[in-house]
Amino acid sequence: MKGKSSATTLIELILYVILVSVIVLALSNIDIFSRHNVISSDRRAKLQNEVSFVLDHVAKNINRAIGNLLLDGYDNPTIKTDVVDNKSISGQKALKISVDVDNNGKKDSPHQLRVAYILTPFPSRELLYYPQYNEDSPQGGEVLSRRVVDFNTAIVKDASGEAINVERVRITACWEPATAVLPNGTPDNPCVKMQARINMPSVSTH
What we know:
Blueprint: H1 2-62, E1 66-68, E2 79-83, E3 93-98, E4 114-119, E5 127-130, E6 142-145, E7 148-157, E8 163-174, E9 191-199, E10 202-204
Parallel strand pairs: 1-10
Antiparallel strand pairs: 2-3, 3-4, 4-5, 5-6, 7-8, 8-9
């Protein structure tokens, strides 16, 4: 009888150890899963805040644009979306805007203050803001974000194909731009896309 009792106790002990191990493993997996989701959600929330800040920054200056989309010409644009052709920053996406400096609703001079947003290519991938942009010698760029992977802007057109005084801005940002998987990213490296249509009340299209 003693041998049987001892054997039963040993089996119970083994079962107890197995049960405890399973519970610990399950709790560990839940903890890892929860931490992973929290980290992913936190990164996505921070990205959303960063992109929202950048979009608001761009919108504020586009709203101050002044001039005529059709008459100001390529060298002195009211608003110009292109790649930079300057030697020091060649091949980068840019948005250049002539803004109403004194907020009087008039283009007082053909040489209004021009601001610019420039997205540098990989691997740096910085969105720079130039409060006083000089085409020949761009200096003093302020880094707005180091997570933007696409900065897309365009003049909106109506149903007949005519340009109207509205600019569309689309910004895509990823937590780690160098390893981004577009369009939505991954749980470890989420991506966020936001866009806005911004009116330009002081810009004429006629």
